[in-house]
Amino acid sequence: MPMYTEKQGQYLAFIYAYSKINGRAPAESDLQKFFRVTPTSVHRTILELELRQLITREPGRARSITLKIEPQCLPILR
Q: What's the pLDDT tens digit per position in 24-60?
C-alpha cells in the first residue's frame, strides 16, 4: 500500500514548498486557496495525513504543521 494517495501527496508537496519559500508552515486557509477546496476538505485531509504519521501538528498553535517524510519521497507539486 502506498504511503499516501495522489491528493495527499500534493498536499504534502505544497506544505514542503510553502514552508521552504515562506519560512513557516502554511495555514489551512493557504491550502484551501491553492487547491480551491472547502475548509472541511482541507481539514479532513490534514487529519488523515496526521493519522498516517506523515505530518505532526501542535494543538492550538497556528501554522504548526511539520512534515515527517523526507523531501525526496514527495511528488512534484502540480
A: 999 999 999 999 999 999 999 999 999 999 999 998 8
Q: What is the DSSP letter of 13?
A: H
Written as one string, the DSSP assignment of 24-62 is: SPPPHHHHHHHHT--HHHHHHHHHHHHHTTSEE--TT-T
Q: Locate 78 and state its grid cell.
A: 502540480
Q: Count how many Cα atoms sit within 13 Å of the Cα of residue 73 in the half-sphere of its side chain.
A: 11
CA distance readout (Å), 76 to 7, 17, 27, 45, 57 = 12, 10, 20, 18, 23
Q: Tell me the three state secondary structure of residue 64.
A: coil
For 57, left (φ over 0), alpha (ψ -120 to 50), or beta? beta
What mean pLDDT, rounded, does the chain reach?
A: 95
